[in-house]
């Protein structure tokens, strides 16, 4: 039994080595390379980019429209809450005020849902490498859209007060 075990200091040829792997295994130092995964398609990043651009442009247009609509809103002048409510109920502008409020709420709701959707799609595209560059640009655009939209609305609404 001790004949098959190599002794310390004795060189054993690869053919006689009992610890050498058998034929199905590749020898050490072979030219084995791991299989290369096919590149992932950038469809998700492109979709996120398109959605973020649509949200950005739509939000700007909606902000300008709401800013212009805010020029016509009457500010109540009553001294008490009851007088202000009575004046706003009988005002000819109450329908326009209502439509302005609904438009503003729709702008916030639609912009938020689509903007968060574009942001999430962009982050997923970045992390899964499915259109990384487009995902980065989409994430930046989707993150800047509410800030720019609010700035544009504020400027347009302020122009109406002048």
UniProtKB/TrEMBL annotation:
Transmembrane stretches, start-end: 44-65, 99-124, 136-159
Source species, domain of life: Bacteria
Keyword Transmembrane: yes
Region feature (Disordered): 1-26
Keywords per UniProt: Membrane, Transmembrane, Transmembrane helix
UniProt-recorded name of the protein: Yip1 domain-containing protein
Organism field: Antiquaquibacter oligotrophicus
């Amino acid at each position: 039994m001790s004949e098959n075990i190599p002794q310390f200091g004795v060189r054993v040829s690869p053919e006689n080595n009992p610890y050498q792997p058998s034929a199905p295994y590749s020898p050490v130092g072979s030219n084995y390379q791991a299989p290369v995964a096919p590149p992932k398609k950038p469809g998700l990043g492109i979709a996120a980019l398109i959605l973020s651009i649509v949200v950005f442009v739509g939000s700007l247009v909606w902000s300008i429209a709401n800013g212009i609509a805010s020029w016509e809103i009457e500010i109540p002048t009553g001294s008490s809450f009851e007088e202000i409510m009575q004046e706003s109920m009988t005002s000819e502008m109450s329908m326009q005020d209502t439509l302005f409020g609904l438009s503003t709420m729709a702008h916030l709701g639609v912009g938020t849902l689509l903007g968060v959707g574009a942001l999430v799609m962009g982050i997923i595209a970045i992390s899964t490498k499915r259109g990384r560059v487009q995902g980065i640009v989409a994430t930046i655009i989707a993150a800047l859209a509410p800030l720019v939209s609010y700035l544009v609305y504020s400027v347009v609404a302020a122009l109406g007060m002048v």
